[in-house]
Every structure is written in C-alpha cells, then in structure tokens.
Amino acid sequence: MPDAEQQASQPGGVPSALGRKVRRALRDRSPRRPRIWFEIALIGVSYWVYSLIRNAVPEHEATAQNHARWIWDVQDSMGLAFERTVNHAFNDVTWLIVGMNYYYATLHFVVTIAVLVWIYRRQPGRYAAVRTALFATTAVALVGYYFYPLAPPRLMDGMDFVDTVVVHGTWGSMASGDMANVSNQYAAMPSMHIGWSAWCGVIILLLAKRRWVKVLGVLYPAVTLVVIVATANHFWLDAVGGLLCLGFGFGLARWWFRAHPQQLPATFAERTESGTRRGESEETAAVPQTSAATSPAPAEAEPAREPAPKEPVPAAVSVPAPGRAQRERGEQVEHPQHTGLSERGGRTPVGASAVGAHTEGEPEKP
C-alpha cells in the first residue's frame, strides 16, 4: 500500500496541506488589505504619469479641428447638436456659470478622492477592485488622447462658443487661462470628467446604504454632463467615450477579481470567515478519500433475520354426541377397553360384561 507521500505525488492522490495552500494562493485574486501610504503614493505617481503622458501627446491643431467639425456634423445629423445653445443660455446667468466653472475645476478631483477615502475606510475589502476600475478607466483614456486629438467646442474656429473661464476670469481650470500653457488643450475625447464622475456615481449607487446618498450618486454624473456642455469644454459624444472607458475599467476589475465590487466582502473579517469555511469544506471533502485509500473496506453487515412465523393455534374440534349405533356397540366411544381384543385373540362380544369377558368357559360365581 503506498504511503501518504506517494499518494500526494500521484494524480488523484490526497494533496498535502502545503500543496493546497499554494494552489489556493495561485487561484486567489481576492483583494489584499490596502496600506494608506502605499495608496497615497500610488495615486500621486499615477496621476503624475497620466498628466505627463496626456500633455506629451503632440497637439495636432489642424487634425483636432477637423475631428471637432466631424463630431459636430454627426451630432447635427442626429438633431442633437445642442452644445452652443446650452453654452449661451448658461453664460447669461453669471452666478450660475461661475459656479459651474469652479465645479469643473475642483469637484473632478475632490469627489473622486472622497469616494476613494470612503471605500478605504468603510469597505476596505472592496477598495482594490474599485481602485483598479478607476485606474484602468484613466489608462485607456490615454489611447483616445493620442490617437484622436479633438478640439473642445470653445476652441472651434468660427462656431461662436463662449470660453466661460476667460470671459468670467475663473481661476483653477487647466483648460483655459495661464494653466492652458501646461495642459494639452486637444485631449477632449474621451471626457474623464464624465468617466470619473460616472465611476463615483456607480460606486455610490452600488455600495452606499442610505437612499439619499444613492440619489446623490446618480445626480453627480448627470450634473457633470450639464457642466461640461455649458462651459463648452466637451461635446456630449465625449461623454459617451468616457462611459466606454469606464465600462472597460469595470470589466478589467471584474476579470481580475472574478467578481463585481458589490459582490466582494466589504471587510476582511467577512472574507476571512468565508475563506475559513471554504477551507474547512475542502479538508472535510478530502477525509473520505484518505480513509478509502488506506483503510480496508468494511465487512458486509449480516442481513437482519426475519422472525419465525408463529404456528397457528389449532381450532377446537367438536366431538359429536354418541349416536344410537354407538350405544348399541357397547358405548365404544366412552369405554374403548370394551372394544379391545381378548387374551385369546377373539373379540369381546358386544354387550358382554367385564366379568364375563375374563375367561371363556369359567363358571360364573354365585
């Protein structure tokens, strides 16, 4: 009989505890516990690289203008070229358009970081998945910036769009003013304002518990769409490109972690409990295989004997009363000795008395 080591090395044998742990580690792509300093450094370095690559893309102004004209013509053919109308309408309300300029310049970063911090603090088991989705969304956007330079509506020639940041002197935006010199002005397709805001909205909608917070999560990307159109920074088709990038980001996170963020344990305590239960079930399933391979088969149990059938109780036989014929024969039924053979072998006459049947020929005593 092979020993345990040989069985562990044979295919189909019982794997050792170390082998099970190695295979489990290779199969396990579940999120690891995040470390705050590593995450801060990762976000900072990643955004620096993103900005470096985005701004290093060659600015082909003529190509960007041609792409903008093509986008406008496509939207106009669908009857959805409404950006200029929205831009002029909001520009007439000064306080509103100034607020939108600050919204465009600040919330793009503030809300995204706030959602990351919220997930990190409250649902750390899902943090790696949502962060991966965000990073993948941002990375694939660089492909669009490189291969499809696009002039935003405010920079289109002869289209009469209002650059609201320049007109109202708003600070903080890298799209206009002094910051425009260090930012790629033709990186408009896809819109990461929509990509990031939609990422925030999806995460809040899926992972928040309070209904009013979920409502805010849905409203945030919708309001962002109005802002990017009103400030003439994007076409609405740029928003569609941002949503496509977001779909890629969530798809990559789903493939890597083999689950959507809401399907992962919110905390590592829940994940540890589920992993312990899974490990115990695997070890329990391996026990019958070990006993079957090493221990002899149990002897067959003797079948239970059926109880012997009870003998039927004979029914009482009724003896009929002696008839006339029997009484004439000397009541043979009640006195069977009267029907017996005599000592000489003859039959005692019927009706003879017991005394007369003693000896034939003996004289009777007086």
Characterization of this structure:
The protein is mainly α and 366 residues long. The chain is built from 13 helices and no strands. It has helices at 4-9, 17-27, 36-56, 61-77, 83-91, 94-122, 127-147, 164-168, 192-207, 211-230, 236-257, 268-294, 324-328. Helix 3 packs parallel to helix 7. The longest helix is centred in the N-terminal third of the chain and has 29 residues, at 94-122. The radius of gyration is 51 Å and the shape is elongated. The termini are far apart. Residues 1-14, 285-297 and 335-366 have low confidence and may be disordered.
Brief synopsis:
By secondary structure, this protein is mostly helical. The protein has 13 helices and no strands.
Q: How is this fold's topology laid out?
A:
Blueprint: H1 4-9, H2 17-27, H3 36-56, H4 61-77, H5 83-91, H6 94-122, H7 127-147, H8 164-168, H9 192-207, H10 211-230, H11 236-257, H12 268-294, H13 324-328
Distance between the termini: 108 Å
Task: Please count the beta strands (DSSP E, at least 2 residues each).
Answer: 0
DSSP helical segment count: 13
SS-derived structural category: mainly alpha
Q: Helical proportion?
A: 55-70%
Strand content: under 5%
The largest pleated sheet is described as: none
**How would you describe the shape?**
elongated
- Average pLDDT confidence is 76
Provide the gyration radius in Å: 51 Å
Low-confidence blocks of residues: 1-14, 285-297, 335-366
Features:
mainly alpha, about 0% strand, 13 helices, single chain, disordered N terminus, about 375 residues
